[in-house]
Amino acid sequence: MSREHHYKTIIQWTGNKGTGTSGYRDYERSHVISTENKTVIDGSSDPAFRGDKTKHNPEDLFLSSLSACHMLWYLHFCSEAGIIVTDYTDEATGIMTETASGSGHFTEVTLHPTVTVAEASMMEKAEQLHHKANEYCFIANSVNFPVKHIPVMLVK
User: Fold this and answer.
1) In terms of domains, do 74 and 37 share one?
2) Which long-range contacts (C-beta less than 8 Å, at least 24 apart) are formed by 27-33?
């Protein structure tokens, strides 16, 4: 049985400097991302595309979504398996290729989670559960490129 889950977010452009999009250099790429009852996120485009480097861009958020989804499934499966994770940090990387026309697409993402478990006896199973988390991640299942993972396992 499949179930649908519906999501809603509001993106509001805040980069009108007074003349709207009268010219390519006449407006900012700034915007706010808001979802009911959640903290507002200040966004922009990547600096390579005239964006503000101090704000999150769609590519950052996309990569973060893949990483967070994997982490949440991974922690879930560890909990079910009796593996005690005491720390988890991921330094995710992604490659986006821009085409000659100016469009582009991600070609791969690699997750680099550093996971600390409570006991050495948990390490092997804990490492294996990254594969299962990758299979279940909603976001990873929605993309058309490989999501790789290279975990580092530590003991508390």
Assistant:
1) no
2) 28/52, 30/55, 33/9, 33/61
Closest CA to 90 of 112, 71, 69, 66: 112
**Helices within 82-156 (DSSP H only):** 123-136
Task: State yes or no: pLDDT of 2 exceeds 90.
Answer: no
The 3 state secondary structure assigned to 62-105 is HHHHHHHHHHHHHHHHHHHHCCCEEEEEECCEEEEEECCCCCEE
Domain for residue 1, yes or no?
Answer: no
- Residue 103 belongs to domain spanning: 58-155
Does residue 4 lie within any of the structural domains?
A: no
Bridge partners (DSSP) listed for residue 52: none
| Tens-digit pLDDT profile for residues 50-99 | 999 999 999 999 999 999 999 999 999 999 999 999 999 999 999 999 99
The DSSP symbol for 140 reads: G
Which tokens sit at 126?
């804990």
pTM for this entry: 0.89
Q: Does residue 3 fall inside a structural domain? A: no
Co-location of 89 and 147 in the same domain: yes
